Structure formats: C-alpha cells, structure tokens
Amino acid sequence: MKYRSYFAVLTLLLSLPLDSFAAELRLRILQTTDVHMSLLDYDYYQDKPTTDFGLARTATLIAAARTEAPNNLLFDNGDLLQGNPLGDQMARITPLRKGQVHPAIKVLQWLKIDAANIGNHDFNYGLPFLRQVMAGAKYPYLNANVMLADRPAQHAFKPYVILQRDFKDEAGARQRLKIGVIGLVPTQIMMWDRQNLEGKLVARDMVETARRLIPEIRAKGADLIIVIAHTGLDKAEAGPMAENVAGQLAQVPGVDALLLGHAHAEFPGPEFAEYPGADIKTGRLYGTPAVMPGRWGDHLGLIDLRLDKVEGRWKLIDSQASLRPILDSRSRKPLVEAAPQIGQLIAAEHQATLAHVRAEVARSEAPVFSYFAQVADDPSVQLVSNAQLAYGRRVVQGTAWERLPLLSSAAPFKAGGRQGPGNYTDIPAGPMAIKNVADLYVYPNTIKLVKLSGAEVREWLEMSAGQFRRIDPKGPAEQPLIDEEFRSYNFDTLDGVQYAIDLTQPARYTPEGKLVAPDSHRIVGLNHGGQPVDDKAEFLVVTNSYRATGGGNFPALKSDRIVIDTPDENREAVAAYLASQARFNPSADGNWRLLPVPGVKLRFVSGSGGIKYLDRMPQIQLLRDRGDGWADYELRP
C-alpha cells in the first residue's frame, strides 16, 4: 500500500508543469540607444576609423554579456536611422530599393535583437521612409503614444508586444516567461518634424499612455513589463506632454524595468547622483531598475533582474543596472575590438558612402573649426550663416518680403559636450568635400524664413545667451563661462546684426525657455546697419525647420511665424554656396562678442584639438592640456 501511494504521488508530480517547481530565475536585459547610424567604428566626417564610438564595438560587449548570462534579451531604443553620412546615403543619395533591407536593420538582426523602439530622429527622413525601413525588420518595432491623425483611436505603430521566451532557472529547470514590452517617444516629434508628420500623426503624453496600457498588457498575461522610452531624466517634475519624463515613468505602477535614451547621457552615473529618486549604486529611479547607455554605441546598458515565483506569479526580488563602455575615457584606450562581421555585413553601403563623401565641392584657403564657437564668433558657424543668407536672398526675390532686412540664425552643432572631445568640426585648409558639408551641418533640417519684430529678434538672442553662466564681478578671480546644461545647438548667433553679451546680468530665460528674470537684459548694443534696432522694426530671419517650428522653446518662434517654407535642406544650401565660391577664405565677421568682466578670468573647457589653432584666435589662451582629449582655456579681453 505504501508503494502504491509513493508511485501515485510520483505520477502526480511528473504530470505537473515544469514551472510548478520554480526556483529563482535570473534575467539580463541589454540595451543600445541613440546609435545615430554609427554602425561602424568609423568617423565619416574625419574619414578615418575611430575608437570613440560604433555599434560594431558594442557588439563585442553584447557577445560577452550574453556569455555571462544565457537568459537575456536585447533591445534598441531608437534614434537609429539618422545622424551621419551613412544615414543620409540610405535616405537621400541612394534611397532604399523596394525590398532592400536597411543596413541598420541588417546589423540589429545579426545581433538577434528582440524588439526596438522608435526615436524622434527616426522620423527625420519622413514617414514613408520610416515605414519602408521598418518593413525590412524581422523583429517588432514599437511605439504606443503616436496615433493616426484621421483615426486618433488607432495606433500608428505596434504599441507593445508580449514576448514568450524559455529560460532556465537557477535549478536548471525550463521556465516560460512572458515579457511585455512597450515603446514611447517624446510628443515633440510633432513640432520637430512638423513638415513630415502634420496631418498624418498625433502624439499623446508618454506617462498617461503607459498608465493606460500597462494594466492591459498585464491582463494579457505578461509576467514582466519593460518600458522602452526614448526620453531622459529631468531634475524638475515634468508636466503633461513633457520631453524628459523618466522619473515620472519610473513611478507608473507595473513597470518592472525602464530603458531610457534621447539625452545621450549615462545612467547610472555620477552626473545623476543628486537627481530626485535616483540611486546610482543600484541603477534605480524611484525603485525601478533603469539604464541609459549614452550614444553612438559608446556604452552597453545592462539590467540584471532576479525573479521568484510567488503564488503562481513571477515577482522581481532584486536588480542591478550598470553600463559597460567601449573606451576608457581617461586613458582614451579602447576596451574592446570591433566585431568584424558587422563591417562585412554592410561593406557595400559603407563603400558607397565613402565614395560620396569624398567628392570635392570647393577649396578653402584656411581651416574651419568649431573649438571656440561657444565663446567667440566662429568660422564654422559663419560659413553656414553666409550660405543661408545667399539662399535667402534668392528665395525672397519677387516676394512681398523682399524689402525686409535679412538675418541668418546658426549654431555650433559640434561643440564637445556629452558627445566627447572629438565632437568638433576640424577641417584643414584645402579641398572641401561632401563629408565636410555634413560635418558643418549634421542634421537634415530644411530652410524656413520667419518674420519677426526687432523686439522678438532681441528676445531670440536673450534666449541664446542663456548658454553662459552669470559672472559675478565681485566673485572669485576665476569663473566658469559656459553652462554645461545648455545645449550648444541652441546657442544661436544672428548674422546681419551686431551685438554684445553682458555676462554680469542673470540669464533672462531658462534652457527650457521660461522667462525667469524679466528685468534682466544680457544683449546690449543691438544694431543693424549702424543704427540701434527699433523694437517695432520688421526682419526676415533664415533659420531651420527645428527652430522655426518651436524647437528649443525660443520666445515667439512657432510655425505660424514662417512666411517662406522651403523643402530644401540647410546643408544643401551650404553645399551650393561652397560650390559657387570654388575658392573661399572662411573667417568670422566678428558681429558679436562677450563683454569682458574686469578683475575676472573667464574659463572654459574645449577639445585639445583647438590648441593648434590658437595663433588664429588671439583672444583665447591655453591653460592646460588635460591629456584626455580635453583642455582648459581662458577667454581674454
């Protein structure tokens, strides 16, 4: 009788599903983000290999991370398709043929990616191109907060997916895990890519979308929910439809892991040590595991999860988020080699891009560089402004706007910052090729002309002057000049007027465009044609589609101010201008300057590559070469 009972129990146990004996299960989540077509460790602007970035090097990290943790999933968080000449090649120069697979998709599929999110820059080449690229993917592409304009209840893309994967628990038993994955993108795509998306799509708030859909995903059987959000982290509490809402998403009930991007920053990392809710030791935001692995493939993001089954449901019991770099930032030595298979996989597209970018368009009699573009009038920004003014003069002919004074807005796109000490324009004297045009103007923006009053021109410059810290004349003898939180692409200078910036005054606007010091005025001596600018005067300003439609939150700049809306790209105007010059001497005209502050030395950091150009910049003095690609400088009176 005893034996019959034993065999009955044994038979019953053998008949139960394998997961009825669940032990602890460990799962590693891997993430890439903001690759911006840096598929290879190659700098198309400098036309040479690099160790600073490249998904081909991240691939080596991915392989190692998978070997360590066989239970793993890999995700990409968008801004994949735009960012360098290889991206332009596939979208503009030799557009994808019907049925052709985009090189970025080929690489992600070789990496065996599980799902991908759509980033804001993935819309830059238009919706038809994005859909064509996505059609070549054998993995799910996700977005939950963008809807069809004519059917606002219908998602424009697949909002989420529930992946079913078999993993082994710590006891070696097979476990079936259902992982819900949802994708989100900033609503600002409707402003940044208005010309591509208006009338086609509408965007909803990311946080509210997550709150609405996560219970639905859980109800469909998801054991675990991963949010892939193309958004960053702000210190301040973000309101509805905000751009950077990582902190708010981390507090949405039901989120088990949060994959971040967009800000090109590194979480967990020391820069977030003082952020509300951030635990940089464990890599959590408000208790939720989170990771943001930089940009251009310079880091791999990892979240290691420990799961246990409690009353038939998987429960997250511990986590650790971390980053793995491809480069030692101090020694500048690579930590991994590139996976050669990626270079082989997209060799044809790479070679076609090289052939295109090496085509000569003009010759320069002097070098063009942007190492000091944030502190002094600069040849790289001047060249773009000159090209835009030439274009503007042509398009206004015969229009009602021909009589208005014409100005040009341009900013330094490559000015170090979070992109590192190699992120500067540095073009030697001699042949100027297509790659140099792309270096001068890295975005596929289109040209817009806006009509503004003299008062609004002044406010534009006041917003731009927020790049600088306030200098206290009675403070320390040495003071930092640049506010590192202010993005260089929002430091617009306006050619066609002359002005100076008084650094002793507080910034009139925050980097988000909020008026905080209404009695402060940094812009002084604003003149046009040798006369003070009248607040009621009218001006035409040549700018780009990002700024004209509200990008950067500049006062008065919205799409209703556009009076001439062109389809031509700003960098096409630069290429045409250079070709028309044949030979040219790039030099800044000195139409703006920073006023000295007596008794205070103004210090700033820039790439050490600028040292070789100090003989051309007498107002800049080298203080120290740090030896890691950066150098300390001083702006002299």
Percentage of helical residues? Answer: 10-25%
Mean pLDDT: 93
Question: How would you sum up the global shape?
Answer: globular
Number of domains: 2
What portion of residues belong to β-strands?
25-35%
CATH class of the largest domain: Alpha Beta
The Rg value, from CA coordinates, equals 27 Å
Describe it.
It is a single chain. This protein is α/β, with parallel strands linked by helices and 637 residues long. It folds into 2 domains: 17-350, 4-Layer Sandwich (Purple Acid Phosphatase, chain A, domain 2), CATH 3.60.21; 360-635, 5'-nucleotidase,  domain 2. Helices cover 24% and strands 28% of the residues. The chain has 16 helices and 38 strands. Strands 8, 9, 11, 12, 13, 14, 15 and 16 form an 8-stranded mixed beta sheet that branches. Strands 6-5-4-1-17-18 form a 6-stranded mixed beta sheet. A hairpin with a 2-residue loop joins strand 30 (523-528) and strand 31. Helix 3 (85-93) crosses helix 11 and helix 12 packs across helix 16 (570-581). It starts with a helix and ends with a strand. Mean pLDDT is 93; it is low at 1-21.
